[in-house]
Recover the amino acids of this structure.
């Protein structure tokens, strides 16, 4: 019964993501004059790779292949009236298997979900600090270290009949970063690629500003080579010496803002 349920979950995930890709393909085809001709090809290649990773990591006795966990991202950037980047807010939505296992462990150990998730969140944030919170902000090609989060919380949320674990992280930038005539790029990824992290929809990227500012965002899809994908597929689950692999599978978000008047 367990394998039957897992199999159904995987088929459902494949179906949902296939539908999303089909809709997105139709939408992006309508605006193809504004998009590189091979962008959808990159999306499909990565999608197929991730599906095979799910199947192999889920059913192989060796539990091979990276990634092993998946996080759906949301990123919001706040621009103030002085044309400065002042705040970045992230929401990480963990995959249902990780969510289910973690929530069960929390209840088993702490008997209280909210209390247990607060403890887990503190540990997560402490561990992530050594990796700049899996986040890379660059301004004109120069990386900008993120400060410790001003706020963070780990919580569960039901979507239909499935309970997902989510992490909300808020960074207040100090000093604020002037963005006039500057190239802003944003990436969120696990350097080891043990975890795949992606914005599944364009609406998961937003810019908050006042009425005098007009901002837009674009996503450059990763384009790993066949050799890199084959290498990731062949890694053992316990093989952690893969630092640097994640950048080959990382999206690159570009933010552009202009004054309206």
């Amino acid at each position: 019964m367990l394998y039957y349920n897992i199999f159904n979950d995987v088929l459902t995930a494949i179906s949902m993501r296939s539908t999303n890709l089909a809709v997105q393909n139709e939408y992006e085809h309508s605006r193809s004059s504004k998009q590189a001709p091979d962008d959808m090809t990159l999306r499909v290649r990565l999608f197929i790779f991730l599906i095979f990773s799910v199947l192999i990591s889920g059913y192989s006795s060796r539990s091979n292949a990276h990634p092993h966990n998946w996080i759906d991202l949301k990123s919001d950037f706040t621009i103030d009236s002085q044309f400065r980047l002042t705040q970045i807010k992230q929401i990480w939505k963990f995959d249902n298997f990780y969510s289910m296992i973690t929530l069960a462990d929390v209840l088993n150990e702490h008997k209280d979900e909210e209390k247990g998730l607060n403890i887990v969140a503190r540990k997560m944030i402490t561990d992530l600090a050594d990796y700049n919170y899996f986040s890379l902000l660059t301004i004109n090609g120069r990386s900008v270290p993120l400060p410790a989060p001003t706020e963070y919380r780990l919580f569960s949320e039901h979507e239909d009949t499935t309970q997902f674990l989510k992490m909300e992280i808020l960074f207040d930038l100090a000093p604020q970063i002037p963005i006039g005539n500057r190239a802003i790029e944003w990436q969120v990824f696990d350097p080891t690629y043990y975890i795949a992290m992606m914005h599944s929809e364009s609406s998961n990227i937003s810019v908050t500003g006042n009425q005098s500012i007009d901002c837009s965002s674009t996503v450059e899809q990763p384009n790993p080579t066949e050799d890199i994908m084959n290498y990731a597929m062949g890694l053992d689950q316990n093989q952690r010496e893969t630092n640097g692999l994640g950048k080959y599978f990382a999206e690159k978000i570009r933010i552009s803002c202009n004054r309206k008047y």
